[in-house]
Amino acid sequence: MDTTFTEEQDGIRRTLRELLRKQSAPDDVKAAVRTHLGYDADLWQRLAGDLGLPGLALPEAYGGTGCGSLELALACEETGRAVLPSPLLPTAVLAAPLIEALGTDQQRDRLLRPLAAGERTAALAAPAPLTRALALTSGNDGPWSGGGRAGGVQARRAGRSEAAESEAGKSEAAEAETAMADAGHASTRAATTPWRLYGSCDQVLGGHTTDLLLVAAHTGAYAGSRTLLYAVDATTATGLTRHRRTTLDETRSLARIELRDTPAELIGAPDADVAEALARAGITLAAALAAEAVGVADEALARTVAYVKERQQFGRPVGSFQAVQHRLADLYVEVESARSAAYYAAWAAADPEAPAEDRTTAAPLALAQALEAQHTVTGQAIQLHGGIGFTWEHEAHLFFKRAAADLLLFGPPHRLRAHAAQIAEVLA
């Protein structure tokens, strides 16, 4: 691994940091999260139009900039530094890679271009906890999308009964074996056949105002049972209800999605390995989240260091006391260790020269380390700010709430590590 960043990578970090310092100060963040969208739409358009942020890791053929997961992680580190509320994670880190991996050529061209340009946003709706659907804390090869009559999300072709859908699933499985010889006939037919979705999903990142929903749904029964991915145009779909959830971290908006006979389009072929695609998306998400958590922790530490240099106690700066210096030194080591792990994970996720084992385990392990560092640093930041840090209005709580919510949403760290150890067979 070459640890030296290119001029282009340094430029991405520098430009994004300067822009966010000017337009996404803590007071700006607090104002943005209380709007209907939950983020600053004008700032998002600038990030998309001037910097190409949502298309950073997409190929140029679909309107992206052709960069990779490392550049995306560097961008997430800067958005984390500003605790930026934005559609970046659900759109660029989750939805776009899934469309690129599973979609047909026509679907990629039609769906990815507006996402890359910032004209539309997207979100992934999965019935199971996100870490399970993305195979970060457990395998995702079971019927987690809704294998029974109740729970999860069910997909059925319009006007077809459950028994007929089961028989269709069996025939599609057989048809998929000869799809290569038929020039993609099965994929084309499935994509043009109308589908209907039924069910609900909780904790959908950015789901309350997104334009496009990617829904992981269960279809078929018995031998034809499987999980597939469907696209729902949230701006026009009937039978779709969305509720914004009350969250600890207002900068990370979550929604409950309810689908009642909602029209949808199948993404890709009926024999697509959706579980594998979701697992690969999970690796990308873990690397991006690890970098974002490092940004949060680094900024919280920088603000704390600046404060203890100014705050006077017993006639001298608080930062001059040896006990405070030792605590800050320990926090610095935590941040830098997490940063190294996050950078390596972002590199290993995409570089073919990385060890095969690290491509699947480095990102979850880096995320576990970054989540712990973020929680420790932001908690200590509140304490080192003294009495003012404990006031609810102080900016230190923006960072602490992000850390606490991330532990609940993307952790816990011990489960991330345990699943990575299981994949690597270190306990076998």
Trace the largest sheet across and list its strands.
2-3-7-5-4
Classified in CATH, the superfamily of the largest domain is: Butyryl-CoA Dehydrogenase, subunit A, domain 2
Main sheet?
5 strands, mixed, barrel
> Given the helix and strand composition, which structural class is it?
alpha+beta
pLDDT < 50 stretches: 172-190
Round the Cα radius of gyration to an integer and report it: 22 Å
Distance between the termini: 29 Å
Quaternary organisation: single chain
What's the order of the H and E elements?
HHHHHHEHEHHEEEEEHEEHHHH
CATH class value of the largest domain: Mainly Beta
Please tell me what the overall shape is: globular
Question: How would you summarize the topology of this molecule?
Answer:
Blueprint: H1 7-23, H2 26-33, H3 41-51, H4 69-81, H5 88-102, H6 105-116, E1 122-125, H7 130-133, E2 153-157, H8 162-176, H9 185-192, E3 195-205, E4 212-219, E5 226-233, E6 240-244, E7 254-266, H10 274-310, E8 312-313, E9 316-317, H11 322-350, H12 356-384, H13 396-410, H14 413-424
Parallel strand pairs: 1-4, 2-4
Antiparallel strand pairs: 2-3, 3-7, 4-5, 5-7, 6-7, 8-9
Task: Summarize the model shown.
The chain has 428 residues and is an alpha+beta fold. 53% of the residues lie in helices and 14% in strands. The chain folds into 3 domains: 92 residues, Butyryl-Coa Dehydrogenase, subunit A, domain 1 (Orthogonal Bundle); 150 residues, Butyryl-CoA Dehydrogenase, subunit A, domain 2 (Beta Barrel), CATH 2.40.110.10; 149 residues, Butyryl-CoA Dehydrogenase, subunit A, domain 3 (Up-down Bundle), CATH 1.20.140.10.
